[in-house]
């Protein structure tokens, strides 16, 4: 009886850790480690108690099977880090958030380094450029050049959104195919292409961008 109590306590501890992990945002590695340990403690407790009560074991397994979609959601859906913005930005569309995770992985070697320069083709209201500024180009000596035709009222939104980053943003109002030809070779550490999505334009933007990348630079093409 006493032994069973001990195992029940261990099981309860497992549940508590599971709940804590589900709630607290942790990096994926620690989250997985905690989840596996907690699940093992919980299962050990249940198996011990179920020695005298096989129905409990069956019920537990059934519960685990039924909540399977929820478990995978918890582990896999780690939200991409939210941009650490002041919250003062104004956006009407979102073509960026879904890529934060990938950008984090692809650009992690450049993060926080001094003298990193980026080119963005297609900036719209500045959401992706702001993410780069707040998450990769964080050093005061780093910068982003934003090329866009700015053909619409969103230009004013872009200007307002970018005001806090004055000095780190160079705005070029032009068609990319014209603007890129005026920039010197091997200027940028990474280039994000998200302008015209016509196949021919994407192809030309990529070809022109290639020349502007420093050796070993990174070219990201938005699908
Ligand atoms: C999908 S939006 C960019 C979204 C932005 N990168 C973001 O994630 O917040 C595409 C932008 O490309 C611009 N654009 C389209 N064709 C262009 C071209 N040929 N040259 C420069 N900019 C272009 C549009 O004005 C628009 O602002």
Give a quick summary of the entry.
This protein is α/β, with parallel strands linked by helices. The protein has 2 domains: 2-76; 97-221, 3-Layer(aba) Sandwich (Rossmann fold), CATH 3.40.50.
Report on this model:
The chain is α/β, with parallel strands linked by helices. It has 2 domains: 2-76; 97-221, Vaccinia Virus protein VP39 (Rossmann fold, 3-Layer(aba) Sandwich). The chain is 50% helix and 14% strand. It contains 9 helices and 5 strands, in the order H-H-H-H-H-E-H-E-H-E-H-E-H-E. It has helices at 2-23, 28-50, 54-66, 68-76, 100-107, 127-135, 154-162, 176-179, 199-212, and strands at residues 117-121, 143-148, 169-173, 188-193, 213-221. Strands 3-2-1-4-5 form a 5-stranded parallel β-sheet, sandwiched between helices. Helix 6 links the parallel strand 1 (117-121) and strand 2 (143-148). Helix 1 (2-23) packs antiparallel against helix 2 and helix 2 packs antiparallel against helix 3. It is elongated and about 80 Å long. The site of S-adenosylmethionine (SAM) has 18 residues, from helix 6 and strand 2.
Q: How many beta-strand elements? A: 5
What's the helix-strand series?
Answer: HHHHHEHEHEHEHE
Terminal CA distance: 61 Å
Portion of residues in beta strands equals: 5-15%
Report the helical percentage.
Answer: 40-55%
State the shape. Answer: elongated
- Counting H and I runs of at least 4 residues, what is the number of helices? 9
Spatially, the strands of the biggest sheet line up as: 3-2-1-4-5
pLDDT averaged over residues: 81
Could you describe the largest sheet, including whether it forms a barrel? 5 strands, parallel
Supply the CATH superfamily name of the largest domain: Vaccinia Virus protein VP39
Assigned CATH class of the largest domain: Alpha Beta
Low-confidence stretches: 69-86
User: What is the third-level CATH name, the topology of the largest domain?
Assistant: Rossmann fold
How many separate domains make up the residues?
Answer: 2
* Class from helix and strand fractions: alpha/beta
